[in-house]
Amino acid sequence: MSNTKYIGYYFKVSPLQPATEILIAELGYAGFESFVETENGVNAFIQSIDWKEHILEGVYVLNSGEFDIEYTIEEIEQINWNKEWEKNFNPIVVDDICSVRAPFHEKPNTKYDIIIEPKMSFGTGHHETTHMMIQHILKTDLNGKTVLDMGCGTGVLAILAKMRGAGPTDAIDIDNWCYLNTVENVERNDCEDITAYEGDASLLPGKSYDVIIANINRNILLNDIEQYVKSLNPKGKLFLSGFYKEDLDMITEECTKNHLNFIENFNRNNWIAASYELK
Ligand SMILES: C[S@@+](CC[C@H](N)C(=O)[O-])C[C@H]1O[C@@H](n2cnc3c(N)ncnc32)[C@H](O)[C@@H]1O
């Protein structure tokens, strides 16, 4: 069972924009992991192990005379993303063909209709990185390909891969809640042949895939790219996200060192999702 604890910062921002956008970007650089925009500003969450004193030191927008920003802080055992989501959530549609929604939303007219109850896991399609990983998957022929969704969160990317015709698919997350939530969401979307595991890259030796998708964060990716590549079949593809534009060169350098060619990247609000292929 994961003991993940979060610290929540609840920001009230006036006027809302562009301050909220700047605030989210600066909090992201400071190490905050998740954001839920509200009608008054934004709720930002960071895991206790990543928190340090003076965490807001580099969040310059707080000291700007132009905006009025107040906040409160709370320590949280487990964030109920579902509650956060229901309060602030609209279904999302990516490139007109893939929607991600909750069971309580009306069925949309999209080719791929993914139903997710996120509970406490990341992966509703609202985050830029999930959105762009969905775009990579939509662009790729996955027919019969073996796929790994590393850092699966809600399992949304594994589910889409399967809907796009993927063969046997694994979904791995280090967090117990995400593992359990993925199992539930796989069932909810009637996807067969997705196997979820709780764990990390140490589960990979002995396994191999045609496509590996990993939306995690810069440091974990830099640490684990070598292992991902060892688990890629010849001509295999690797999709990486969870890092900023500034980090793309560093990530690509590590990929090149591990015999991958850069293919392309998407960019949304300074977040990147890049694709690579084994030489
Ligand atoms: C940014 S979320 C991505 C969720 C989902 N794949 C998506 O695209 O929306 C990153 C996920 O990686 C998981 N994670 C963090 N470190 C990990 C590691 N070393 N190995 C596997 N999963 C990890 C987290 O628990 C979290 O669910």
Summarize this structure briefly.
The protein is α/β, with parallel strands linked by helices.
Task: Note down, in words, how this protein is organized.
The protein is α/β, with parallel strands linked by helices and 279 residues long. The chain folds into two domains: 6-79, Alpha-Beta Plaits (2-Layer Sandwich), CATH 3.30.70; 132-278, Vaccinia Virus protein VP39 (Rossmann fold), CATH 3.40.50. The protein has helices spanning 19-30, 81-88, 128-139, 156-163, 176-188, 218-230, 248-257, and strands at 6-14, 34-37, 41-47, 68-76, 92-94, 98-101, 112-115, 147-150, 169-173, 194-198, 209-215, 232-244, 260-268, 271-278. The strands form three sheets. The protein has a seven-stranded mixed sheet, with helices on both faces. The chain has a four-stranded antiparallel sheet with strand order 2-3-1-4, sandwiched between helices. Strands 5-6-7 form a three-stranded mixed sheet. The chain is globular and about 55 Å long. The structure holds S-adenosylmethionine (SAM). Residues 121-123, 129-130, 133, 150-153, 156-157, 172-175, 178, 200, 215-216, 220, 242 line the site of S-adenosylmethionine.
Separate helix tally: 7
* Overall mean confidence score, pLDDT: 91
Number of domains: 2
Largest β sheet strand count, sense and barrel closure? 7 strands, mixed
- The assigned CATH architecture of the largest domain is 3-Layer(aba) Sandwich
Q: Percent of residues in beta strands?
A: 25-35%
What is the CATH topology assignment of the largest domain? Rossmann fold
